[in-house]
Amino acid sequence: MRVPRFHVDTPLSPDVRIELPPQTAAHALRVLRLQPGDAVILFNGDGHDYAARLVAGGSREVAVHVETRVATMRESPLRITLAQALARGEKMDWIVQKAVELGVAAVIPLVTERSEVKLDDKRVTKRLEHWRAVAIAACEQSGRAIVPLIEAPQALDRWLATLERSEGLVRLALHPGEGLRARALQPAPRTVTLAIGPEGGFGERDLAVLRTAGFANLSLGPRILRTETAGVAVVAALQALYGDI
Ligand code: SAH
Fold first, then answer.
1. Would you say the pTM of this structure is higher than 0.85?
2. 159 partner at 20 to 30 Å CA-CA among 17, 112, 195, 237?
3. Alpha-carbon distance 90 to 34, whole Å?
4. Which numbered atom of ligand 1 lies nearest the CA of 222?
5. Diameter of the chain by CA atoms?
6. What does the domain layout of the chain look like in residue ranges?
7. pLDDT, tens digit, for every residue of 205-235?
């Protein structure tokens, strides 16, 4: 059986003993039925895995003893930021999960001209917490020891105003029709910022502000993909061409 991998929010180092957070402990005991002595891997986002073992705990608490720090090599040399126009409910969860599995460095949910999803402040906080939990679960599963940044949803023009000139040397707006092709990017990019439109696509104003901010149009070919397909497809293509797939 694969050694279970858990995210914890505490500093880790060899030879410390920590309690697993209550939800993780419940999962370890009731679902995985782990016993004292069983091996687990912990990570906290610092880029390492920590090999650990369960030590005897109570009926609800699970204590683990950290044994060694292990370097992980799962981050892509291609740094991808995925700015994704908000998609409805579960689609956004799916996009966050797949983007993390495919190795993106950051996800930024965008509100664009034709965005149909509206979030008030209270819902934003809840959704953001939820997406961060989805990202952590995807890291647990995929073996990543660095948790990608999931930012709060932002209006397209406000997000563009925060981008620094030096950041995201290659900026691509995904738009059906004429445009660059992924395989033709030259020189091979090391850092890419991608903008994906909503179900209804980017509007004229969106495209104009993207252009002003230095985004070139990228085409994924002759078929129109759904917004949740487009992000995943372009990340996979770029990782295959310039990253580590
Ligand atoms: N209704 C729109 C399509 C929206 S598809 C139209 O007919 O134009 C949703 C988003 O997915 C788009 O905004 C774009 O970012 C991306 N996308 C879908 N298919 C694409 C393609 N072939 N090339 C580039 N981007 C694409």
1. yes
2. 237
3. 31
4. 22
5. 62
6. 5-71, 79-242
7. 999 999 999 999 999 999 999 999 999 999 9
